[in-house]
Amino acid sequence: MEIHKSKRLDNLKYEIRGPVYEKALILQNQGYKITSLNIGNPATFGFETPDEIVHDIIVNIRNAQGYVDSRGLFAARKAVMQYYQNRGVKNILIEDIYIGNGVSELISLVMMALLNTDDEVLIPSPDYPLWTTVVGLAGGNAVHYECNEEDEWNPNLKDIESKITGNTRAIVLINPNNPTGAVYSKEIVDGIVQLAEKYKLILFSDEIYDKIIYDDCVHHSASGLSDDILIVTMGGLSKNYRAAGFRGGWMILTGAKHKAKSYIEGLNFLFSTRLCANVITQYGIQTALGGYQSIDDLVNKPNGRLYRQMNLAYEKLNSIPGVSCVKPKGALYLFPKIDLTQFTFEDDNHFVMSLLEEQKILVVGGRGFNFIPNNHFRIVFLPHVEQLSIALNKIAIHFDNYRK
To answer: Nearest CA to 204 among 253, 246, 238, 242?
Structure first.
C-alpha cells in the first residue's frame, strides 16, 4: 500500500526551498556554480558570528550537556528581558521570556497553541511564507492583508480591518519586513495595535531584523504597546548576529497576559514537550545582547558593508528598463517589480527558472511570498560588492535577452 502525505500539506508551499531550489541543486551536481541569492544566510557570504559570541559558546560547551528549563536558560532569558526593558518596555517578568530553536520553531509553537480548525490569522502579503504555512499546519486559515508598493510597502490598515471576521484570532506583523525591506512608522505600528485592541486579537510581531536598518530609519517595536491585548514579539541571533546556523531565537509576552492564561498554559505545555531549545547556543545570547553591536558598523552609511551592497542592488535594479524597486529601509532583501509588457517572460516563475538555467543565478518568485501579482521577485544582497555587481550585471543581460 502506498503511503500518502497528510492532506494538510496539499495546499501548502515554501518556495524559498521549492522546485527552483531543487533545480539549482541538480545544476550544482552537474558541476555548475550557482550564485544563490534566494535565502538570507549571512555566513555563506562571509558575515561571521562575532568572536565573543563564539568564544562564550565554546567555553560553556561542557555546561550544555543536559536539558535545561523548557523555556530556556535563566541567564539568556534575563538578557532578553533586560534588552526590552532598556527599550522602555515595562512590567516584564522572567516567565514572559521563551527561548526557541530559532524564530521558525517559535512561529510553529505559538500557532499550534492557539488555533482551532478554521480559525483565521491575518498575515501580510507579501509575507515570510513560513507564517502562512504554519497557520495551515495548525489547522487554521491564513488571510492575507495588502501591503502597498506605492506606499513603500506599508500595510493597508483599512484592508486589514475589512478582513477581520468572527473567526479571526490574531494579526501578524513582520517589521522590518521580509521580503520587501519595509520598516514601519510608529503611526503604522500603533494603527495595527489599535485594530488588535478593537477586535480583541493577539498581535504577533516578527522583529528578527530589528537592528538591520538603513538611512537613519528608526525601528518601532510592538512589544509593550498595549495593556489590553497580548503581544508576542520575536527576535533572535540569526540575522543581527550572523548566527543563522546556531538556531537561537526568543520571544517575549507583553500586555494582557491575565487574559491569556489558558493560551500561556498551552504554550508552556508545548515548550515542555520539546524538552528545551538547544542549550549551547543559549550561552551566546547574553553576550550577543549585552556586547558590542557590530551590526551597526555593517548598516551605517556610507561605508557599512550591508549599506553599500543594498545601495548597489537598488541602483542597478532600478537602472534596468522595465524593472522598478522600492528602496529597502531594513532587512536583507529587495522585492523588484517586472513590467511584463516589456519582456517575453510569462510570469515570475518563468523569469526565475530561466534566470537559473541561463545565468546560473537563484532568486525566488514573488508568488512564493503569498503575493497574488505574478510580476515580482525577491533578491538577497548579501554577496560582496564585487560578486553582487557581477550577478546584477548578469540579471540585466537576462532582461535584455528577453526584451520584446
So the answer is: 253
Q: Please provide the average confidence, as pLDDT, over all residues in the chain.
A: 96
Confidence (pLDDT) at 312: 98
Sign of the Cα pseudo-torsion (78, 79, 81, 86, in order): positive
**Could you report how far apart the first and last alpha carbons of the chain are, in Å?**
51
**Of residues 364, 378, 372, the one with CA closest to residue 147:** 372
What is d(CA 232, CA 113) in angstroms, rounded to the nearest whole number? 13
What's the CATH code, domain 51-290?
A: 3.40.640.10
**Host H or E run for residue 191:** helix 186-199
- Of 359, 310, 367, the C-alpha closest to 333 is 310
69-113 pLDDT, tens per residue?
Answer: 999 999 999 999 999 999 999 989 999 999 999 999 999 999 999
Task: Give dist(CA 21, CA 155) in Å, integer.
Answer: 29
Closest CA to 379 of 147, 368, 370: 368
Contact 172, 204 (CB under 8 A): yes
C-alpha Rg value of the chain to the nearest Å? 21
Cα within 13 Å of Cα(30), Cβ side? 10
Domain layout of the chain by residue ranges: 7-48+297-401, 51-290
- CATH entry, 7-48+297-401, from 3.90.1150.10, 3.30.565.10, 3.40.50.1000, 2.40.50.180: 3.90.1150.10
The series of mean pLDDT values per 10 residues for the chain, 404 residues long, is: 82 76 92 94 95 96 95 97 94 96 97 96 97 95 97 97 98 98 97 98 98 96 97 97 96 97 97 95 96 95 96 98 98 98 97 97 96 97 97 98 96
Where on the phi/psi map is residue 281: left (φ > 0), alpha (ψ -120 to 50), or beta?
A: alpha
